[in-house]
Amino acid sequence: MQARNRAFLAPGDPIRDDVYFTVSGQRAEVEAALARHERGKALPLVILDVDGVIAGRLTLSGIVRGPFQSCSVGYWLAEDQTRKGLATEAVQAAISLAFSDLALHRVQAETLLANVASQRVLAKAGFEQYGLAPSYLKIAGAWQDHLMFQKLSS
Ligand SMILES: CC(C)(COP(=O)(O)OP(=O)(O)OC[C@H]1O[C@@H](n2cnc3c(N)ncnc32)[C@H](O)[C@@H]1OP(=O)(O)O)[C@@H](O)C(=O)NCCC(=O)NCCS
Question: Residue 117 maps to which CATH number?
């Protein structure tokens, strides 16, 4: 799925080498994600369509405990699964997990300035924009500004 959607996802991703798009590269990615899960640092999830087919991924990452009780949410869909409301539904479900099962206080998200679709997903899930971080992440080979969002547990 990553290989099939390489061009679609590239504008929002770090530059990835060819190994990343192979079966062994993806196996290593999944193993690393599961290891982070084992350490309590992440919750890697898949997004299913109405037929139960894997449509994309969503990860709660960077889980920090202590006085912060916070994590970040990241998500993507296969191009042919977009514009069906799946991301909105997935983010809303993940927020519930973060605040109930994981007992977190805060979920953070960030988007490129031009990523209107992702900003809509976050707005519909009740995130508020709290800032603009200059040169926040190296995406598609360049340090890029990001809009910063958060949602707090009620
Ligand atoms: C961003 C992304 C997850 C949105 O997923 P999606 O399932 O298509 O989103 P939804 O169907 O839930 O739609 C959410 C809103 O965005 C709008 N939207 C979706 N794609 C859009 C696009 N390409 N341009 C403008 N608006 C768009 C929808 O119309 C909807 O708004 P509305 O409710 O006001 O009509 C998906 O496009 C994607 O995977 N993009 C590449 C990876 C990425 O950007 N991930 C997020 C990084 S922050």
Answer: 3.40.630.30
